[in-house]
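User: Can you predict the 3D structure of DNA repair photolyase? Sequence below.
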Amino acid sequence: MLEAPQYVDIAVKQAVHRVQAPSMPFAWSLNPYRGCSHGCAFCYARSTHSFLGFAADDTFRKHVMVKAAIPEALERQLETKLRACGGNLERLSTSFGTLAIGTATDPYQSIEAKREITRSCLEVLAKYQIRTTITTRSPLILRDVDILKRMRLESVQLSIHTLDGDIWRAFEPATPAPKTRLATVRKLAEHKLPVGVFLAPILPYISDDEAQMHSVIEEAVAHGAHFVMPSILRLAPEVKPWFFDVLRHTYPHLLEQYEKLYKTPYAPPWYRRQIIAKATAMVRSLGANIEPLPSTQSVARTCEPQSRQLTLPI
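Assistant: Sure. Here are the predicted structure tokens for DNA repair photolyase:
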């Protein structure tokens, strides 16, 4: 039996943060919570707890911080940017770029059913017509279909790395079952929403064989996923000790192989190329895309002052 998480409200100054990595297909991130009651052993976001003096162990699951005032902070930030765009919502939407929700927490973890922080943020994003992408493992997102239909929603992706019950229970026992997530994909697709699956993280020697990957991809497409994006396990230095501890208790015979494979946060290039090539071929053979369709403007730009727009060369 897992120990129940503790929740504490924290103050926030900014709701959205600019994404610095040019390789990312979004310009901003928003995370309504810090920590996550899902507690996936492989979650790279565990390292964010170390910034606050916490260990990247089960504290990440047991000590969750709630950004109670983040919807109001989001409204203030977007209103400021709207004024810079001369009050023009279309200019704001185009210049702002894409916002990703759930890059360092699950926005639909269990506490969201009670607090509705994510839902309140979606209301603000719908009001300002901000292009948005959402990542989750939870069917709770279905509660917010009414808002999702009003938003400039670019994609929703459900993370599913295996359909094997033993593997699921070993690495993410506090998450909704994979079949529940697939059912969520189907329901979102039935609502004509842009939904896909992150085949992530692919675990070397555990969920990387062709049969396992094919089963996830095949079921994802059968349930209406528009895309299936594969991604291989990454182990940040802060996360590695906790993941290895879980591995030691669940797959001890693989510990030595993991130590050899993960001398850095990433598996060797040869391994990544091999696995991604196989997964990509499977996705394409089943008629799906390997990523969401690109937005017209995913990278943020600055709104030019209204006065400059009126200075015409005539």
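The two ends are 74 Å apart (CA to CA). Confidence is low (pLDDT under 50) at residues 304-314.
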